[in-house]
Amino acid sequence: MSTRPPLPAPPTFANGAIRVFSLSLSEMLWSRRTVFLLLVTGAPVFLALVARIVQGSGIVPLRVNGVAVDGASIFGMMIWVFYLRFIVPVLGVFYGTSLIADEVEDRTITYLFTRPIRRGAVLVGKYLAYLVCTTLVVLPSVVLVYFLLVPLGQVARTFMSFAADLGLLALGLAAYGALFALVGAALKRPLVSGLVFVFGWEQVALLVPGYFRRFTVAHYVQSMVPHAMPSDGVVSLLQSVLKDNPPVFVCLLVLAAIIVATLWRAANTVESREYVLDQ
Q1: Does residue 6 fall inside a structural domain?
Q2: How confident is the model at residue 265 (pLDDT cuts 50, 70, 90)?
Q3: pLDDT score of 64
């Protein structure tokens, strides 16, 4: 009497996440969202190129109170204004909320969940693909902006701050992506909620005195920026509001806790939730 060979054991959580990661990364890199990503990250590069051309013609591209602002300070302002306050949270919202929501909208989540891979591993694998995809586009954009704006003579003096910028942007992408992965897994229409959080709650909480800012991701990310803020106008107001910054190690611990806790909760939500497809 012949015996049926035993069925292969299902992949472990880690192996399942790696499989989903390898599949999702290529899809993300060639998706329409990547075109949006390139346009968003290309805007600071274009502005830096214009500033470099203007500076090369002998004209000072930026003055504050009549004093010329050097390339390193302009780069620091662009990190604040473009990357930390706009690009990083926006990418976290658009990519993080779509990790599961897109599968539901495209009606492919049923096929994805029928694979012998844990549901939580599917979300973690897609999250890792998001993180690699965004960092592969955002960080080269920052590198181009840096070398367009900062003269070679100032590279040695500013390189450590530049390296800190790269690590901080990657950490911000990880924190916002994990948070909005949870939003996308838990809510039916997560994109609106994510945009309200980033452009509503966080903007107000950062400006209101008190403890409200501690319930934002932006507070801990921006507290570790190595650049000094210029002292005029709206930016000066932001500096006065953010002057009571927690220590760097506290910011790192809080952001790490946000990433681990929200990603763990998102994976558990995907494991337990029944996703009903609209007819």
Answers
A1: no
A2: very high
A3: 57
Nearest-angstrom CA–CA distance, 75 and 225: 12
Structure tokens at 230: 């210029």
3 within domain boundaries: no
Number of domains into which the chain is organized: 1
- Residue 231 banded pLDDT, cuts 50, 70, 90: very low
Structural contact between residues 13 and 122, judged by C-beta atoms closer than 8 angstroms: no
- What are the backbone angles phi and psi of residue 210, rounded to the nearest 5°? 120, -155
Domain extent at residue 83: 13-272
193 in a domain, yes or no?
yes
Instruction: Note whether residue 164 is domain-resident.
Output: yes
Q: Residue 64: beta bridge partners?
A: 67
Give the span between the Cα atoms of 146 and 78, in whole angstroms.
10
Look at 73 and 39; give whichever has higher pLDDT: 39
Q: Full-prediction pTM beyond 0.85? A: yes
What average pLDDT does the segment 109-126 reach? Answer: 81
The predicted-structure confidence for 162-192, as pLDDT tens digits, reads as follows 999 999 999 999 999 999 999 998 887 888 9
